[in-house]
């Protein structure tokens, strides 16, 4: 990372400079990493051109101020995701599937033979078994797309399936267990109401969803799919931004 030998302040300076060079290169040629090249950084050769050049440079300051916190967030997320990715890589797809089957299979066995041990009452075994199947499939797809695809496939598919493996199993379990439903369904209702009236209502489409969709059964699965997939995209884009601004050695 760029903070390795320069310290925190030096690393931030390098990051900001790289962001500013990237901003300048959106309009002008030979801006990013051009200082140490033979030709050097390109600059206009007229007074008007230089004025516009400086204006564009100044406009980049507030943009960078908004973007840089996202870069730092991406750096933190990158560290965590690469720890998980390293473990998944060592295990492989088969290893991830076997580990998930063992973990969820153990929970399903508890729900089947010792239902009181994990506080599942109605449909406990089925709830855990189906949730485990969803988690296992999602985790396997996440690892597969991470290994066989490039950056685009990783962001578009691997991250969303990873988020699905985390968020969707409790919702699926809630469809079969009244105990799980008593926790998951109220939280889902609160979240969906907030999204309807605070987000969709601002763009005038809340009424369409209120009139055409009921919050029951499979609708809760769709709600959490609508959360986990975009969240996976956001996490993937933040990590990609961190890689672009602060590449690892």
What layout of secondary structure does this protein have?
Blueprint: H1 7-25, H2 47-113, H3 124-148, H4 151-174, H5 178-199, H6 206-212, H7 218-245
Task: Please provide a brief summary of the model.
With 249 residues, the protein is mainly alpha-helical. It has seven helices and no strands.
Description:
This protein is an all-alpha fold and 249 residues long. It has a domain of 154 residues. Helices cover 77% and strands 0% of the residues. It has 7 helices and no strands. The radius of gyration is 24 Å and the shape is elongated. The N terminus is likely disordered.
* Percent in strands: under 5%
- Low-pLDDT segments, ≥5 res: 1-5
Oligomeric description of these chains: single chain
Shape: elongated
Helix percentage: over 70%
List keywords for this structure.
disordered N terminus; elongated; 7 helices; mainly alpha; 249 residues; 77% helix
């Amino acid at each position: 990372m760029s903070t390795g030998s320069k310290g925190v302040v030096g690393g931030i300076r390098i990051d900001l400079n790289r962001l500013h060079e990237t901003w300048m290169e959106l309009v002008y040629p030979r801006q990013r990493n051009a200082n140490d090249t033979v030709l050097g950084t390109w600059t206009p050769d007229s007074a008007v051109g230089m004025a516009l050049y400086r204006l564009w440079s100044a406009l980049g300051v507030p943009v960078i101020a908004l973007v840089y916190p996202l870069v730092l967030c991406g750096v933190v997320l990158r560290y965590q995701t690469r720890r998980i990715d390293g473990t998944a890589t060592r295990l492989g797809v088969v290893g991830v599937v076997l580990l998930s089957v063992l973990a969820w299979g153990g929970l399903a066995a508890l729900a089947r033979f010792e239902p009181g041990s994990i506080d599942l009452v109605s449909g406990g075994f089925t709830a855990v078994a189906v949730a485990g199947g969803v988690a296992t499939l999602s985790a396997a797809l996440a690892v597969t797309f991470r290994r066989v695809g490039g950056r685009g496939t990783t962001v578009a598919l691997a991250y969303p399936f990873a988020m699905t493996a985390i968020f969707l199993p409790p919702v699926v379990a809630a469809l079969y267990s009244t105990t799980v439903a008593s926790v998951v369904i109220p939280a889902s209702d609160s979240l969906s109401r907030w999204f309807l009236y605070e987000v969709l209502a601002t763009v005038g489409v809340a009424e369409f969803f209120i009139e055409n969709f009921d919050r029951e059964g499979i609708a809760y699965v769709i709600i959490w799919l609508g959360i986990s997939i975009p969240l996976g995209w956001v996490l993937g884009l933040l990590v990609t931004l961190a890689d672009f601004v602060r590449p690892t050695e």
